[in-house]
Amino acid sequence: MPQTVRIVSLLLLATLSGVALAQSSSGLTVVNTIPIIDRKSTLNPPSAPSNLTAHDNGIQYHGGPVLSTAQGVNVYFIWYGNWSSPSDRAAQSIVTDFIKNLGGSPYFNINTTYYDSGAGGLDPVRNRVNYIGSTTDNYSHGTALVDQDLGGIIEQPIMSGTFPLDQNGAYFVITSADVDETSGFCTTYCAFHGVDVLTPFRSIASALRSPSSVNVPVAFVGNPDRCPAFCAWQDELPTPNNNVAGDGMVNLIAHELSETVSDPRGTAWYSFNQKPKGQENGDLCQWTFGQTTNLPNGSFYNVTLGDRNYLLQRIWVNALGGYCSLSWVNGAN
Question: How is the chain split into domains, by residue range?
Fold first, then answer.
């Protein structure tokens, strides 16, 4: 989808083990969004566009970095709002189990077909996802958020020492059903990923001499219970784990995390030839699920991770001409 940039001027200073943290004046950049469901789409559309040329996988590299460190991507969750009901706690369990089992899977392995250029040559995304932990935020920015609130929500646990400032981390703000994101949640999008530019300072004096920015990958995941018909493919019970919000959110997280590792700043991998331009590896397959299997409760799924079944969208494979898939194993889907 076309990139959207929203800018805010803000300076925050806090002390964290002798290190001050300041947000740079560039603020939060929203790289990409997941549009709401178009129910006119089909469950199994064509796997690849018909206008590919030789050596074109349907998605192009634009020179920027991917998240390719050997240890993989570190994931942090911020549960924003009220998550106290039994249904809410069940959703949290579903999402946490999903992220704990995502790394090393054939599904996330699709992202290893994306790379940047390191000192030793091509440096691919690793099939490793490290769930570091979670924290809660009791409505620090109210129930009607704007995009720039996301940066403030993420900065709070970093400044308090709950989370580290991790350039190889992906920080997810996941909202309860009573929280709106006023830039378009439930009307134009369900989730988005972006980058927040922070500056760690060891002292204010040294900061003025030589600020050093850190680009922090961030994401917003709205609660599908707020608009299930638009943000959850199985929008009423039964679902694979009998929780509309939890089962819907794992699909949104799968989309955004894949795009975060392959295009964290909107400068690496996205399609220039397809319409609309700017589509990342999740966008090219959004709301498509491939082969599904029915469950005894009447729902359906397509991926099993750990002890749970999930319905996850396909991700674009950057190989063999390019196509949507649920797996990439040793060069085959």
Answer: 4-325
